[in-house]
Design brief:
It is a single chain. With 131 residues, this protein is of the alpha+beta class. The chain contains two helices and ten strands. It has a five-stranded antiparallel sheet with strand order 1-10-5-4-3, with helices on one face. It has a three-stranded antiparallel sheet with strand order 6-8-9, with no helix packed on it. It is globular and about 40 Å long. The termini are far apart.
């Protein structure tokens, strides 16, 4: 009887601990929420203009933001993981035809210089506009 009661209690305690750990957002989650606050996601697009955007703002190893002044924030979820991509690093991307596009490759250059990373690839660009 004691063994039967211990199992549900252990399961319940495990759920409580995991819920507590999940409730604390990471720094990257907070940065992303702040950047997209008050904006609504639109349909993902293949390319954005390199001329009218600023950025990139690196959120984490999977997310980069580009901005149009006062208008649209473009979220790009990197294809796969790019472990060397961190907020303090720089992205080097070769631009063709004045656009930054889905599947374009880029490299991460460490802060202060150094050897560029292996190539990473951009995903589609999701626009977030003020509602």
């Amino acid at each position: 009887m004691m063994r039967l009661m211990a199992l549900p209690l252990a399961a319940l305690l495990g759920c409580t601990a995991s819920t507590a750990m999940q409730s604390e957002p990471s720094k990257s989650d907070l940065a992303l929420a702040k950047a997209l606050e008050g904006r609504t996601a639109g349909k993902a697009e293949e390319c954005i203009s390199a001329s009218f955007t600023s950025g990139p703002e690196i959120i984490d190893s999977k997310t980069v933001l580009y901005s149009e002044v006062g208008r649209t924030v473009w979220r790009n979820d990197i294809i796969g993981d790019c472990p060397s991509l961190k907020p303090s690093e720089t992205i080097a991307i070769e631009i063709h035809g004045g656009q930054i596009c889905h599947n374009d490759r880029f490299r991460v250059i460490p802060f202060g210089g150094g050897i560029p990373s292996a190539p990473c690839r951009l995903g589609k660009f999701t626009p977030y506009r003020k509602g």
